[in-house]
């Protein structure tokens, strides 16, 4: 399916490389209706390949600079390799954009604690819906923290179980507990998750973020 596009790209001096991403790139969730998602990395935009949704091969044309700053789409580039890389710069850009500085984990950690704190506080005054919604919001923040603190991108929701199966973290991620939190806001599960998160945060140098929630840290532990 990609042979014609590869041949065309090799002959085009404006094309630096091709990157297949999505289901076909990772060999998961592929059906007979799955399309082929391809980034075409170019030296400059010339409008040669306009994006057309629904095509069997959906190409997105972007420069090397745009590949390095994909505007919230970084996970598309995780665990993929270029099909074509004329200069070596495409593979380098993929490594750069999928590498996370563990120091950046402080922000999602604080966001997670904030959502959990609001969930617990709302539950205490009987605001059950608000508590549940805050509990649900805490889960993506927690996932972003736990991946970032290990230098990894948080996967899109679709890819979470695949990611943990094929590229496990060095700690256990209890998906059943996360589901219980998302479905019911279970206070005991939230407390247990916070205690484990606090331990990981302090181990990885993010204790000051936890300490910023004093004098409520003991209450959050349960």
What does the model show?
This protein has 222 residues and is α+β, with helices and mostly antiparallel strands. It is 50% helix and 11% strand. It has eleven helices and four strands, in the order αβαββαβαααααααα. The chain has a four-stranded mixed beta sheet with strand order 3-2-1-4, sandwiched between helices. Helix 5 (106-124) runs antiparallel to helix 9, helix 6 packs antiparallel against helix 8 and helix 8 (175-184) crosses helix 9. The chain starts with a helix and ends with a helix.
Defining traits:
elongated, 4 strands, Beta Polymerase, domain 2
Strand ordering within the main sheet:
3-2-1-4
* Poorly predicted segments: none
Which series of helices and strands comes N to C?
A: HEHEEHEHHHHHHHH
Structural class: alpha+beta
Strand proportion: 5-15%
What value does the average pLDDT take? 94
Total domain count? 2
Alpha carbon gyration radius = 21 Å
Estimate the helix proportion, in percent: 40-55%
The total count of helices amounts to: 11
Shape: elongated
Annotation, overall tally of beta strands? 4
Report the sheet with the most strands, covering strand number, pairing sense and barrel closure.
4 strands, mixed
Question: Distance N terminus to C terminus?
Answer: 56 Å
Topology:
Elements (H helix, E strand, L loop, with lengths): L2 H9 L3 E7 L1 H4 L9 E7 L14 E7 H4 L14 E4 L3 H9 L8 H19 L3 H21 L11 H7 L8 H10 L2 H17 L3 H5 L5 H5 L1
Parallel strand pairs: 2-3
Antiparallel strand pairs: 1-2, 1-4
């Amino acid at each position: 399916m990609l042979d014609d596009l590869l041949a065309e790209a090799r002959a085009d001096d404006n094309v630096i490389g091709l990157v297949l991403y999505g289901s076909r790139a990772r060999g998961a969730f592929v059906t007979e209706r799955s399309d082929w998602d391809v980034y075409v990395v170019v030296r400059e935009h010339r409008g040669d390949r306009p994006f057309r949704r629904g095509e069997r091969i959906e190409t997105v044309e972007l420069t090397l600079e745009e590949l390095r700053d994909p505007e919230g789409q970084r996970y598309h580039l995780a665990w993929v390799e270029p099909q074509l890389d004329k200069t070596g710069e495409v593979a380098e850009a993929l490594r750069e954009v999928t590498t996370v500085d563990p120091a950046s984990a402080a922000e999602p950690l604080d966001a997670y604690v904030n959502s959990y704190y609001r969930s617990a506080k709302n539950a205490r005054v009987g605001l059950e819906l608000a508590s549940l919604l805050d509990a649900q919001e805490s889960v993506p923040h927690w996932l972003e923290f736990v991946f970032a603190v290990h230098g990894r991108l948080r996967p899109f929701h679709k890819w979470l179980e695949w990611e943990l199966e094929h590229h496990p973290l060095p700690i256990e991620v209890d998906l059943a507990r996360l589901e219980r939190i998302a479905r019911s806001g279970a206070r005991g599960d939230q407390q247990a998750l916070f205690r484990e998160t606090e331990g990981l945060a302090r181990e990885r140098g993010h204790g000051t973020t936890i300490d910023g929630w004093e004098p409520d840290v003991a209450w959050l532990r349960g």
